[in-house]
User: Fold these one by one.
Assistant:
Number 1:
Amino acid sequence: MDAGVRDYRTGSLKGLKAVVEESDYDRLFPKERYIGKEWLQKEYDLLWPRVWQWVCREEEIPNVGDFYEYRIGDQSFLIVREKNDKLNVFYNTCMHRGTRLVEGAHEFGGPGTFNGNKAQFDGKITCVFHGWAYDLDGELCHLPGAKDFAKGMVKREEVCLRKALIDTWEGFVFINMDMDAEPLLDYLHPAPDNLKDYNIGGMRIQRHYTTVLPCNWKYAIDQFQEGYHVWATHVMDLNNVGAVSTGPGGRRVGEKKDGNSYPPPDKVGAMTVYEQFDLHTNFWEPHWQLTTGLPPRVKLGDLSDEDYPTPREWARKAIETMVVQNRVAQYELDHFDGLEDLPLDMLGPDFMLKLRHEACAARGIDLSHLENQQMFGFPSEHRLFPNMLGPVAGNSYGLFRARPNGDDPDSMIWDIYFLFNYGDGEVPPIHYEFIPDWKDYPDDRMPPSFMQDFKTTPLFQQGMHSKGFPGHRYCSQEQNVIHTQKLLDQIIGME
Ligand code: FES
Ligand SMILES: [Fe+2]
């Protein structure tokens, strides 16, 4: 620990912050934190119990009596909607003999409801072992054989469900096991201010995928807060998953030069902007025209190639690709299909802006207050420490959550959420899906760029175990990763 820096291995994390310094580029960061079982255990002991963790969205538990089970390591929590729209969070364990009370509907947790339970247990939190039951506020309301317990062992205040802290921001529900933690909005600062223009609270989850990746959970967080890998993993597609970056709908479309030469690394990753705050980071693309899926300087009427010979076919393919990537809503594609004439003289990116504004306005979604820069692609990708991040733009939010998987530092649980704005009465039911092996997943349903990232995960993880690998060295395009590492230095230690 540097002299003068508070040791955050005890107490609350209030005041914790990291600043990236020049000397950090001269340092090797230890690989043990990605592969060591001891380090993983320290994370369970020192990190996860003291941070605000995003657990679910409010729309996943809309009714009184609904719950969401959230797991982190061997801890399970019940987020419960009580009357008057109050949310509670309880440790998911019966106060009699510790039985886990309920499980969510999906792999690794998920939503569920206490409504419809049998007889007197309807709407109650019930233990299947001996039938203790709790009200939605956690109070014990049914104690079978009460007179057989010693009086002092079943005092009301001692047998109610144990609580953690709970709060919400823009429809996201967060919990914290540290009862001394700072308030959620203080913890999230400055993200709530930075993201206030986007109607995040009004967005709704369209899809929630969960998969298991053969790597440490921090790898996934690192991957999504640096642009340095984009050139090799995505533009060049060096792992042969199937490049999309330079075709219709791709992020670098129009950037391909001289037939086979692509922009050099410093033109891709270095074009993005990296920002660090006390606890969180941001990562964004300042050239909005590059993120609309159409070439930045080409008129709509000039879009054509061998596969998509007319402007309508070419543009449609681009929009369709972006629907799969969660960068465009299905209703925007439908709106495009309903257009009789295309403004062929308009530059592609300008057309995409117009399409988005019009498709949303037709559903009562007003995006007119947003700058062009805020409408597409990656105007903001905040990483909310420690494990939540993703790009928000215009009317979409693609979100990821990374969690360790049990006691294996080489495995992680990866949640992918796609959110959109919807018109009244048009909100679709949430599609939940567990993907046991992403390699078998149809690539027209998952962005190929995700597959490209996933494919490097075992290589990265296995390679770090090599006795020939001394530790990580980072460049300025990876400064947000350094920021995360420096927070961990203070919470867990430098090794
Ligand atoms: S362990 Fe829950 S009622 Fe016995
Ligand atoms: Fe990537």
Number 2:
Amino acid sequence: MNKIAVIGGGPAGIFAALAAAEGKARITVFDGNSILGVKLAITGGGRANITNTRDADDFIRAFHEKKNFIKKSFFAFDNNKLISYLRTAGIATISDTEGRMMPDSLSSVDLRDRLVSMLKKKGIDIKTCTAVKGICKDEEGFKISTDIETLQYNRVILATGGRSWPSTGSSGYGYRLAQELGHSVKDPVPALTGLNSGEIGYAGLSGISLERCRLRFNVKGKDKFVEGGLLFTHTGISGPAVLDISRFVARDLVLKKETAVFVDLLPGMKEKDLEKYFFMTRKKNLKQAVSGILPGKIAAYILERSKTNDNLRVADAGKKRITALYNRIKSFKVNVDSTGGWEKAMVSSGGVETGEINPVTMESRIISGLYFAGEIIDIDGPTGGYNIQAACSTGFAAGKAAAVKKPLR
Ligand SMILES: Cc1cc2nc3c(=O)[nH]c(=O)nc-3n(C[C@H](O)[C@H](O)[C@H](O)COP(=O)(O)OP(=O)(O)OC[C@H]3O[C@@H](n4cnc5c(N)ncnc54)[C@H](O)[C@@H]3O)c2cc1C
């Protein structure tokens, strides 16, 4: 029987342990916190958006350049399988109008508690307040050291998470454990976080939200577009669309001191529609006209930024001014000086190099008997349940494979 150490009791570690328990293995979950799943318990605004109803292609595509890596573990334990696994365990789920899926208790704490009960029922040993400080490979397997003891296992699943929201226990220490075992780590950057922009932060727009915007930004010389909600904050911009592009912006900021995002504030209005609108409002002044299609404070800010007298009648503004206004509305520039940082990042973009991990079993290609699961791996998806699903899919694959009795390479 394999003796498996699961390092980290987030969704990846929990699902790795549950899957390993389906094979005949002795499993211990280590976590530095006094309770498992501290991050899971704050997800989805306290409601745990654990997955979504998207089809497999959409799901896989959401993982950017890592779609081929995630594919295999996702197919083996996809959103439907996760939902039916939970249902069998007595945890019903519901979806909202956007297809986001949550436990029907709408409580991430309740979900975490039920998962921990499942681990206990399956006889899985849980060592809380026990941070793993070192992992040493030897002929019999692995020596796991904590502050108080050194224990022997023949399989290890590293599921320590990344560096995001470190107050939940994911300090980035897992990267060090992986590196000490010979793995490469792609430098992680904070992702799914807001973007700071001094000028926007001071513009008095904080609290204004736009239901639908189109964001444009440049990745390696190519324009990329993301659509979704946007929120102005006291430090810059946030909201679903901004969170989803933050991984790219954060990487750009590593290379430059400043970068820019361009926001189409009215993606539903084409140039012709705007021209028509300004013709219809030609008797109004510019402030009244722009406030008719955008929140008043944004209208005032745009007019101030284009140094246009807002009392000027639209009819008297001239084509040049109207075109300039059009450009500011359709391509509102936000200079970004930093991201929300690790403290406010929901995930880490970067991590253990996927080329060094078998995508079917999650086993290390460098060290036999070592497996990876969840955010510690260089995979990150957008908001909407993708990241918990990825943690569960990779965790399930790792746990299942780690329980199989076979000689180590
Ligand atoms: C505020 C917030 C909201 C979110 N909402 C959603 C959402 O609604 N939907 C979604 O899909 N994703 C969401 N996410 C992202 C999601 O929570 C993570 O992607 C997911 O938790 C990653 O799972 P994991 O098990 O890999 O890592 P984690 O959940 O970070 O768990 C890692 C665990 O390892 C432990 N650990 C670390 N180092 C050691 C060590 N050396 N020894 C022992 N234990 C260790 C930590 O204490 C921690 O408990 C959210 C994240 C945040 C911060």
